[in-house]
Amino acid sequence: MAPVLPVVLPLQPRIRLAQALWLLSWLLALAGGLTLLCSGHLLAQLWHLGTFLAPSCSFPALPQTALAAGAVALGTGLGGAGASRASLDAARYPPWRGVLSPLLAVGTAAGGGLLALALGLTLILPVSLHQGLEEGLEAALVHYKDTEVPGHCQAKRLMDELQLRYHCCGRHGYKDWFGVQWVSNRYLDPSDQDVVDRIQSNVEGLYLIDGVPFSCCNPHSPRPCLQRRLSDPYAHPLFDPRQPNLNLWAQGCHEVLLGHLQGLSGTLGSMLAVTFLLQALELLGLRYLQTALEGLGGVIDGEGEAQGYLFPGGLRDILKTAWLYGGTAHKPAPEEAPPEEEPPKEVLPEA
């Protein structure tokens, strides 16, 4: 069977290939380490913002998969650096002969598979992130007032910190606060007729106002923060409700968080693509170096030319051999027929 993609490697090309693989291995290890850092940073951000993501959101699967892929790439790079350096010394290479085959198998199956999966997730999961933020932020606004409800005691603090840190207000804008009751009933005066009228006028019995929490206020505004009666053009002199960015944060938190997390995932996707390319080149080079050295008995400075290849036979021949071997192994042995009896010889009477 003819080998797949054979390449003739004389002595000097073999040495240059080993030296290039040593450098490439360290580049792969560096890329794997950066992938680990990027995926770890994205995981930390998702953990911090987990309150504002729906439980059904599958976006965290991206950094988790990338973390495993980066770890495999880092290990492949370090192992490749050791093997390529040892291949330059006939005395140091023999212990590595048994390591190269498992390294190539793990790097191809686990590393390549995880990298390809993570790259696919960077293209698919942004849709899940969009929907997850929609549902998570909606729930955060609804539970803002539930400071004494078990499981939601920290909802107000977390939402205020989010709006102050990311300079955003509401889900898509400050008017989102007009549609939810964000003031707890504990702080409403039941004797106030305005409070009673607002609750009775709402079908669900909610106290809705055209105001926003203090964390929506822009501290860079030259005037004191306006939080109440924002839809009334006559309530506040020299305030135009059509230009709330002069007093409140202009962007909604959905837009800000979506851009922030998509930016991190885009950086992670770029690192995954670079790591995938480096790992493919690394594994190809190691395979050619391994097969060339095996042809020389594991001695890189052996005399003569060596042939490196990907597989010892063509794919068609490999499948044919496996099929024939499997058919022979599972084919029942024919029953042995009893030996035929020789016909009795005629004995001639003696004359």
UniProtKB/TrEMBL annotation:
Biased composition range(s): Basic and acidic residues: 342-351
Protein localization: Cell projection, Cilium, Photoreceptor outer segment; Membrane; Photoreceptor inner segment
InterPro entries: Peripherin/rom-1, Peripherin/rom-1_CS, Peripherin_LEL, Tetraspanin/Peripherin, Tetraspanin_EC2_sf
Superkingdom of the organism of origin: Eukaryota
Transmembrane segments: 20-44, 65-83, 103-125
Membrane topology: Multi-pass membrane protein
Chief localisation class: other
Sorted UniProt keywords: Membrane, Sensory transduction, Transmembrane, Transmembrane helix, Vision
Pfam families in the record: Tetraspanin (PF00335)
Entry annotated with the keyword Glycosyltransferase: no
Annotated segments matching region Disordered: 329-351
Family: Belongs to the PRPH2/ROM1 family.
Protein name: Rod outer segment membrane protein 1
Biological source species: Mesocricetus auratus
